[in-house]
Design brief:
The complex is a heterodimer of chains A (160) and B (102). With 160 residues, chain A is mainly alpha-helical. In chain A, 74% of the residues lie in helices and 0% in strands. Chain A contains 6 helices and no strands. Chain B contains 3 helices and no strands. The chains are: A mainly alpha (160), B mainly alpha (102). Chains A and B meet through α1, α2, α3, α4 and α5 of A and α1, α2 and α3 of B.
């Protein structure tokens, strides 16, 4: 449990770093390290499939996409405001204190739903228990593909 | 619900606060997408922790895998939009978008 708390602290730390660091490349790498820690946390929480997806897809693919974008938009480092970074630690400490003090009582007021019994395997859960939302998921993937194709088509910007 | 679940929820709230603060105060478009990614991590951690507390990790894993697939699509479209905005305005500042005249 101590190791798990350390991993969670590292996750929050690297997420804060990803937001506060001025250099965008370092921010993307911090986000990848946070994804890696989250994947390890998932493995330790008895959820290996989610951990594999988190490490391979989020820490791998999305980081590559971010780096490509940062390389394609070179001069974008200088737009950050100063006050945002300076005010963050104070707000964060105040929020953590409030969180530690009252969150447990607040959550306990929400009535707990009854849990269902554990189904068989991950394949049954992924493909048999869900049918309709898979259609929606396929629609989202196609929407993403067509949106990227439409945004990068040649000769589309007539007014340039 | 056991005390482990509350511990996870504590960290989930911290991550959510970080992401929402980023969305509210930052002006760089790439930083905004990083903030969305941080909020996504909080949501996946909350799902898996709740599945663990309810002794139904498999269903939670299915939801998290679905979310990760959707997140890749979201990030790809968002970054393509950001590159197009950069080509138009030569800047990543989100305030420049308000000056666009159709």
């Amino acid at each position: 449990m101590v190791l798990q708390i350390l991993l969670l602290c590292g996750l929050v730390l690297f997420s804060v770093l990803a937001i506060l660091v001025k250099d965008l490349l370092k921010a993307a790498i911090s986000l990848a390290v946070a994804s890696l820690l989250l994947g390890i946390i998932f493995f330790r929480m008895n959820a290996p499939y989610a951990g594999v997806f988190e490490i391979s897809v989020v820490a791998g693919l999305i980081t590559v996409l971010f780096m490509l974008t940062i390389a394609l938009t070179k001069s974008g480092d200088a737009v950050e405001s100063k006050t945002a970074s300076f005010a963050f630690p104070a707000f964060f400490v105040v929020f953590i204190t409030i969180d530690a003090l009252i969150m447990k009582k607040l959550i306990q007021r929400v009535p707990a739903l009854p849990g269902s019994e554990e189904p068989g395997t991950i394949g049954q859960v992924l493909w048999n228990a869900r049918t309709l939302d898979l259609v929606g998921q396929i629609a989202i993937i196609f929407a993403g593909v067509f949106a990227v194709l439409a945004l990068f088509r040649k000769g589309g910007n007539k007014d340039e | 619900m056991n005390s482990t679940w509350f511990l996870y929820m504590f960290f989930v709230a911290a991550l959510l606060f970080t992401g929402i603060y980023c969305l509210l105060t930052m002006r760089n478009l790439i930083k905004l997408s990083i903030g969305i990614g941080v909020i996504g991590k909080a949501v996946s951690l909350a799902l898996i922790a709740t599945g663990l507390a309810k002794k139904n990790v498999l269903a939670a894993q299915g939801l998290v895998i679905t979310y990760i697939v959707v997140e890749v699509s979201l990030v790809a479209v968002a970054l393509a939009l950001i590159i197009n905005v950069y080509r138009k305005t030569k800047s990543l500042d989100v305030r420049q978008l308000a000056k666009l005249k159709g």
